[in-house]
Amino acid sequence: MAARNPVTWLGSPTFPAAARTALDDSQLRRNLKHATGTIRTKRAAAVSELDDWEQLRLAGEAIKNEVLTRLDTYLVQFEEAVTARGGVVHWARDAAEANQIVLRLARQAGAGDVVKVKSMATAEIELNEALQAGGVTAIETDLAELIVQLGNDRPSHILVPAIHRNRAEIREIFRRTMPDVDAGLSDNPAELAGAAREFLRRKFLTTNVAVSGANFGVAETGSVVVVESEGNGRMCLTVPETLITVMGLEKLVPSWRDLEVFLQLLPRSSTAERMNPYTSVFTGVTEGDGPRQFHLVLLDNGRTSTLADEVGRQALRCIRCSACLNVCPVYERTGGKAYGSVYPGPIGAILAPQLAGDMHDPHAASLPYASSLCGACFEACPVRIDIPEVLVHLRERSVEAKGRSPESAAMAAAAWMFGSRARYEAAQRAGSLARFVAPRGKLSHLPWPGSKWTNARDVPVPPKESFRGWWRRNRG
Amino acid sequence: MADARSEILGRIAAAQPDRDGVAIPREYRRSRDYRDVVELFTERVAEYQACVHRATPPETIGALLRARGLRRIAVPADVPPDWLVDGIDWQPVEGRPDIEQLAGCDGALTGCALAIAETGTIVLDAGAAQGARAVTLIPDYHLCVVRPEQIVGTVPEAIAALPPTRPLTFISGPSATSDIELDRVAGVHGPRTLDVLIG
Ligand code: SF4
Question: Which residues does the UniProt record annotate as the domain 4Fe-4S ferredoxin-type (chain A) (predicted)?
Answer without folding.
Answer: 315-385
